[in-house]
Amino acid sequence: MTVTDQFVLTEAEHALLPTDAEVAEYAARGWYLSRKLFTDDEIDALQEATERFYAGHRDRRLPLRPPNLAYWTPEKGDVQRHNDYVHYESDEIAAILRKPLLGAVAARLARADEIRIWQSTLIYKPPRPEEESNQVPWHMDRHYWQTCTSERMLTAFLPFHDCDVRMGTITMVDGSHAWGEIPGDDSTRHFAQRDRAELEDLLAANAAHNGASVSKIPMNIPKGHVSFHHCKTYHGSGANLADLPRRAISLHLQDGDNRFRPYLKSDGTPVFYNHDVLVRRNDDGLPDYTDPTYCPVLWRT
Prior knowledge:
Layout: H1 3-6, H2 11-14, H3 20-29, E1 31-36, H4 40-54, E2 81-84, H5 86-89, H6 91-97, H7 100-110, E3 114-125, E4 136-139, E5 154-159, E6 170-173, H8 196-209, E7 216-218, E8 225-230, E9 235-237, E10 246-255, E11 297-300
Antiparallel strand pairs: 1-8, 2-3, 3-10, 3-11, 4-9, 5-8, 5-10, 6-7, 6-9
């Protein structure tokens, strides 16, 4: 496969792209539910690959452990699992996630000529309604990506099955990507490390600060379809009330213009993202977010 061929869609795939009206709606609401982008066979192969990953298979391992890495291992027990960098550690998973159609949809929504992978997180929510880790509090991804210059980054949420409210599907706060943040909230701790009530209060305060209401929209996602959300859209998820685990991958994406920027908290301490100790350095000695090892191109127009 040549580089040129890699970024070509079939006629049938072109029909699956968001329309101009849907792109405008994404810009207004901060989220989009796709048509069926993956076949059942592709999704089944993805789940099988993740089972091998959980069983210990790795094609390669990270050369070092970044400071804020989310990485479930069996001794942590039957809690919600998060495993970052699965696109780097598993060639099987990467081959499916790097389907050009997925990148083309993201490019349309972000109005970008190029889409690169930013991060991939494998998620497993066990069928345990009482398990506190299953409930993901309200947050927006951009809050943790302050070292990025882009405001157009987005996330593709890809479940391995039909995913609805009973399974604790991802839920969007409609239009919240357009809100301005309350000044002074510069904590970049992962939502799992913060109090759920604190983040619930922060969501309400942000809504009030912007004169907005909180409208929560659960994504009912059929198998093979993908939910996309803007990097500033508040989102979260509830408990898994079903009798099967909720399996998914969150594929975080960056547009081609995104670059590293130094960013300081209000107390003067620098913000770091996990990539900053892994990716190559650019000519200025700064982390290079175009490093194809960790941030491969998914789509280029």
